Amino acid sequence: MLDNELHQNGGVQVMNKPSSSLNHPLSSEMCSSASLSVPSTPKDGVVVKVSHVGACYSEGQMRRKRIRPRFPGVEVAGTIYDVSNSLPNSNFCVGDKVILFPDEDLANSGYVEYIAIDDTCKVLQVPQNISLEVAAMLPGGALSAYAAVLGAKPHVEKLQQVKSCVNVLVVGGGGLGLWTIRLAQLLLGNLCNSVRLFVADNSIDKLLTAQDHGCYDIVHWNEEDHEQYIVERTLDACRGGVDVIIDYVSSPRTMNRSLKVLNRFLSLCLVTQEGLIMVGGNSMKEVSISLNALAAKQQSIVGIPKGNMNQLRDLVNFVSEGKLSPPCYAVFPIEDVNQVFDDLCECRITGRAIFRLGNSATVTDNQ
After folding, report:
1. Can you list the positions of beta strands (E) in the chain?
2. For residue 132, what are the contacts with CB-CB under 8 A and spacing of at least 6?
3. Cα 83 to the chain's mean position, in Å?
4. 166-199, pLDDT tens digit by residue?
5. Distance between CA atoms of 209 and 1, rounded to whole angstroms?
6. Could you read off the pLDDT of 118-168 as tens digits, one per residue?
């Protein structure tokens, strides 16, 4: 999971003083000078000097407030430091901007400033007009959201043949939800007219951020409210019911809630279309669903597919050509990692958090 998608409310602020409130702060080994050693260049491979990494952790860790940061994680951007002399037909040059296709081996390799890559098929060059801080977000949150929107698009297009407006609900107003808004605006036509995109979350601050990014409306899923009241509130906001749900939380509560607000199957003219839920599967909890009810309502639940390298290349091109702009994010020096994860855990940061490796102590933010 790339960010806490459904959590408690909290004031949005960034504090840069050291913090000791995390249960699992970064160990000294992870930030020691030994981690800066340069590995040998693999045969037919490259060495990448890491510049920026996304703040990566699992949804389960966030909910338990026992965060174990993963570095470099699944969001890595940097420059080519060295190229193997035996690499055939190499188009890589020292200094090229690159991002790495998500790889679990990298996600668990610990904090390092240099990464040796054996398979250059996992390395994608980035145009000069894309900053490395933005590039770092593309292999993780942006790619997951892109796969989700691409999966929902055929369903939405079929419904547009028989409905004047299709309602899409995104569960989770964090980084994944914000990327989904941006990509829906790009890929699903004119939002608000033919497609209305709603965002549901427990955090008011995240909902306000999502509203600033251009979603049609927001729905406050306050976990302290009665369940039926939340369902009625959602149906009232999404007049006509919900046709497609993209659930990045996928907890038992959000899934059961989604099934209650999802439309039954639609059969008009020559188009037959069921209500669709796309799940991110990040809650790490089992969900019990009545298959009889699912069949009776002709509703479908599918997993969000993992993005591929071609889709990552699409994202790079969209950003480079100015067709896609990133959601709000903030860049922090790696030295502030414990404080940043503490702020994320307490929902004091909306949007994405990106770490910059290096000696600069400034904090930048695109909000």
Report:
1. 46-54, 76-83, 97-100, 114-117, 123-125, 166-171, 195-201, 217-220, 244-247, 266-268, 271-273, 275-279, 299-303, 329-333, 352-356, 364-365
2. 51, 52, 77, 78, 79, 97, 126
3. 31
4. 999 999 998 899 999 999 999 987 666 789 999 9
5. 19
6. 999 999 999 999 999 999 999 999 999 999 999 999 989 888 888 888 999
Question: Which residue, among 140, 42, 132, has the nearest Cα to 95 in the 3D structure?
Answer: 132
* Beta-sheet strands, E only, within 68-172: 76-83, 97-100, 114-117, 123-125, 166-171
The tens digit of pLDDT for each residue in 303-345 reads: 898 899 999 999 999 999 999 999 999 999 988 888 888 888 7
Q: Name the token pair of 57.
A: 């952790």
Cα gap 94→151, rounded to integer Å? 37
Q: Which amino acid does the sequence have at 278?
A: M
Q: State whether residue 63 is helix, strand or coil.
A: helix
Q: What residue type is 147 in one-letter code?
A: A
- Torsions phi, psi for 230 (to 5 deg): -65, -40
Q: Residue 48: what pLDDT?
A: 94
d(CA 345, CA 332): 16
